[in-house]
Amino acid sequence: MKLLEERILREGQVRPGNVLKVDCFLNHQLDVELLDQIGQEFYRIFGQDGITKILTIEASGIAIACMTARHFGVPVVFAKKAKSKNIDGEVYTSVVHSYTYGKDYNITLAKKFLSPRDKVLIVDDFLANGKAMRGLLDVCNQAGVTVGGIGICIEKGFQPGGAELRAAGYKLASLAIVDHMDDTSLTFRQQ
Ligand SMILES: O=P(O)(O)OC[C@H]1O[C@H](OP(=O)(O)OP(=O)(O)O)[C@H](O)[C@@H]1O
Ligand SMILES: O=c1[nH]c(=O)c2nc[nH]c2[nH]1
Fold this sequence. Notes:
Layout: H1 2-11, E1 13-15, E2 19-21, H2 32-46, E3 53-57, H3 61-72, E4 76-79, E5 91-97, E6 104-110, E7 119-127, H4 131-143, E8 146-156, H5 161-167, E9 172-181, E10 186-188
Parallel strand pairs: 3-4, 3-7, 7-8, 8-9
Antiparallel strand pairs: 1-2, 5-6, 9-10
Bound molecules: 1-O-pyrophosphono-5-O-phosphono-alpha-D-ribofuranose (PRP) and xanthine (XAN).
Domain Phosphoribosyltransferase: 39-149
Protein name: Xanthine phosphoribosyltransferase
Function: Converts the preformed base xanthine, a product of nucleic acid breakdown, to xanthosine 5'-monophosphate (XMP), so it can be reused for RNA or DNA synthesis.
């Protein structure tokens, strides 16, 4: 997606530890117009696939999921990382290692929000080692839902998550794939 690639080139910063900082527009301060166009692009790619729910993980996926759901006209449900007294009934759980926080989380999602009749589109801001996605897929598997697709804003193509998901046969669309980045340059995969 040209618009997203241009924005990454203009405002992204490469930080130690292979971290691409895009907090000016994607995952801290939010450019809602850009997010809306991202949602529209996911709808172009997955709109005919019978999606009944958008699934993501807190925190950074939520805004993207909401803007995407506006185009699909379906609900958003997100996996929670924090333990909460506000979650009742039975829950699906899985363990996720957070890339940026460098620690493991138990994620939870109330069972009542996913049913085997659902076909979900999973969205997130980043795909790196694929740990967050594996946790979400584990929850989907426990719930017996069909995974209709995976929509990612920025995939770091030099880390293994994307290749593993494609090899597993998922319909994965990454709107920008960074194949290389360092202090002086950043290149995208031609798609
Ligand atoms: O493919 P992975 O290696 O799992 O990396 C991608 C995940 O890492 C980030 O989440 P993070 O744990 O940093 O939390 P945040 O959503 O609160 O920013 C990002 O939002 C993805 O969910
Ligand atoms: O803002 C972010 N930048 C990254 O490089 C990254 N990798 C996983 N999750 C990430 N979030």
